[in-house]
Please model this.
Amino acid sequence: MAAIISIQDLAKTYEGGFEALKGVSLEIEEGEILALLGPNGAGKTTLISIICGLVSPSSGSVSVGGHDILHAYRAAREMIGLVPQEITIEPFEKVINTVRFSRGLFGKRRDDAHIEKVLRALSLWDKRDSRNRELSGGMKRRVLIAKALSHEPRVLFLDEPTAGVDVTLRREMWELVRQLRAEGVTIILTTHYIEEAEEMADRIGVIDHGRLLLVEEKAKLLHQLGRKELVLELTEPLPELPSPLEGFELQRSEDGMRLVYEFDAHAESTGMTRLLGAVAEAKLSLKDLTTQQSSLEDVFLTLVEEGRTGK
Model:
């Protein structure tokens, strides 16, 4: 699939010498959902702001749909919809006028049918004549999304789209994002909610201290870096490891009621057969035996730690 956004050696240094981005290169494919993860101050918002033309890069290049963001600004910006973190809408304006006005800013002809479609998709049609200040926080965030979709962009940026939104509304937004992707819209989201990226993204990018540490397909990332654990629940506390278990690098809980064995599920040999044989040899009585997969959060924390220590 062709790249709709191409980023080459992008850097941004602010006055005072702070380097927000350090040589970021990235190809974003048309029609995919890319989640950008990173701690506060990692450079996520700066990257989005540069692509959207809100911040000037110090060096490097960015093109959207083949249009350079500096030399063909209008053509590039017309392809982009942006939902910012902050709720910035005119409080006394009606919802429908807010969305119509945003479409007009991009030089698009009035299209009431499209505006109605967007508002209905976001459950805002019944609120179309309400003043923005009368809406709840979640509804105001929906208005921001409607504004971003008003001019029919091919690329949609969601900067922390569900911050401060309840769980029900968050899942409704996830469903909307999937619908947009099905219509061919490319979606890039930044999020602090690891489960949000794990739920929706096709690919995951991890940014820390202005550097892009990794971009990988979600499933492949979990396959490569995710680990599994075998958890042995005992019927009686174990004060110390018996000799048959000493070579397995087991983690024993403080109360001695649990043993944890970490392994690579994709290795030729996981060692579990030998471990269970050693458990039988030690005559341990098991209450339960379960396995669990490392989450994306575990993988994310590992990547950030390795990036900072240079491993």
Remarks:
- The first strand starts at residue 3 and ends at 13.
